[in-house]
Design brief:
15% strand; 149 residues; alpha/beta; 20% helix
């Protein structure tokens, strides 16, 4: 290939439509933009989601859901995990303060004990909430449950 055989790619040099060059060109006068209105002006830019004055889709759709600002989020602590904590840290009582001191809970977390897993030893619980099955399992082994605020 040499300079004298170079050619542009096929179809790359099409004839451009010259707008605004007189009535005989079929695109003279208004240059294919019609008469008046925002779309005929230079610098026109349509807003995102604009539907020509019709109520836009995002405004026709209903707002969904509700976020309760007073909802309490609990960190779940299963009975199996309670038993692991008892064995690891050699505790007889599990309280929110013990859990925070050992780095299991952060400062603001609330604890709820759930009944999944197996509890093998007696334990006294001082937590924010507890399920009925977990409470029954703890009391069956002679432990006690105290709800803290």
């Amino acid at each position: 290939m040499e300079l004298h055989n170079l050619k542009p790619a096929a179809g790359s040099l099409g004839k451009r439509k010259r707008k605004g060059r007189g009535q005989g060109s079929t695109d003279g006068g208004t240059s294919g933009r019609g008469h008046k209105g925002a779309k005929s002006r230079s610098g026109y830019k349509q807003k995102l989601g604009f539907e020509g004055g019709q109520m836009p889709l995002q405004r026709r759709m209903p707002k969904v859901g509700f976020n309760n600002p007073f909802r309490k989020e609990y960190t779940a602590l299963n009975l199996g995990r309670v038993q692991e904590i008892l064995d690891t840290y050699k505790l007889s009582e599990i309280s929110v303060d013990n859990l925070r001191a050992n780095g299991i809970l952060s400062k603001t977390e609330l604890v709820k004990v759930l009944g999944t897993g197996e509890l093998k030893s007696k334990v006294d619980l001082k937590v924010h909430a507890i399920s009925e099955s977990a409470k029954a399992a703890v009391e069956k082994l002679g432990g006690s449950v105290t709800i803290v605020k």
